[in-house]
Amino acid sequence: MRWGEKRYHSLDYELKQMFKEKVYKIALNGGMTCPNRDGHVGTGGCIFCSSQGSGDFAGSARLSIAEQIRQGKADISSKRPVHSYIAYFQAFTNTYAPVETLRALYMEAIADPEVKILSIATRPDCLGADVLALLDEINHIKPVWVELGLQTIHPETSAYIRRGYELSVFEQAVKELRAIGITVIVHTILYLPGETKDDMLDTIHYLNHMDIQGIKLQLLHVLTHTDLAADYEKHPFYIPDMQDYIQFLGTCIAQLNPEIVIHRLTGDGPKDLLIAPLWTSNKRTVLNQLHSHLKEQDIWQGKEYYV
Ligand code: SF4
């Protein structure tokens, strides 16, 4: 296959091409908040977002970044020999702080010689000129990736999930990040309430023609203590079973631009907070089933992608 043993352009494959070895991610917490929670954009946050700002696997904000990296490395390297890491600022909105605070956090992360990439999860409305200038500067030292939480292109769904910015803001952010050579990864959510398969594929088709380098396809997770969970209890919405999800993922993969690297294909919800779908907890099984489905149906990324 074009991407090693996989039928899609996986992050693993891409990293091995870049660094000739496996690279592991360390999820960090820079102690930030989010404008969609503190009142600048909204107060309730996105409807699905956990109290940890979607950073449930990140380190503790009580620890310095260097200490979080040290702990992350100790955990990962206790199981296997590892020499390369991605410092991934995951929790909350990781460009939402004064630029000098951001500089100190990012510089502390890239100071570790085994950190090969700085990856930053954020919102497209939190990339002012000063932040972009900082990212540009750091991108000349080590590669910088920025992950934007788009979730969907549809305005009705975006209003329901309380995303808090327009699609045009996303487009502007992608343009500005690409102008300074930053790798852009887009986080999408599949099976948001009210979206049909065609709606979800509209988001994929739209992203196929954007200048983005990576995508996360995240199955919607209902987590405890979220407004989404309250809605789910009152009016349970459709959540796919594993078979339905895998079949639809096959369609998404077939229609996805083969140049776009796939960073995620399932969910990554913390087991202790997950209400539904519970079958996603066994990630290995989901991926094995997906790989068998792709093989049986002779699907590969881009098979049905037409420029
Ligand atoms: S933008 Fe991110 S951190 Fe903020 S509420 Fe939404 S998902 Fe949570």
Detailed description of the structure:
By secondary structure, the chain is α/β, with parallel strands linked by helices. The chain is built from ten helices and nine strands. The chain has helices at residues 11-19, 65-77, 99-110, 129-139, 155-160, 167-179, 197-208, 227-234, 242-255, 283-296; strands at 24-28, 85-89, 115-122, 144-151, 183-190, 214-219, 222-223, 261-264, 274-276. The chain has a seven-stranded parallel sheet with strand order 1-2-3-4-5-6-8. It has a two-stranded antiparallel ribbon with strand order 7-9. The radius of gyration is 19 Å and the shape is globular. The protein binds iron/sulfur cluster (SF4).
According to CATH, what is the topology? TIM Barrel
Q: Largest beta sheet, briefly? A: 7 strands, parallel
Number of strands: 9
CATH superfamily: Aldolase class I
Uncertain runs:
none
Q: Nearest-angstrom radius of gyration? A: 19 Å
State mean pLDDT (0 to 100 scale).
96
What is the H-and-E element order?
A: HEHEHEHEHHEHEEHHEEH
Total separate domains: 1
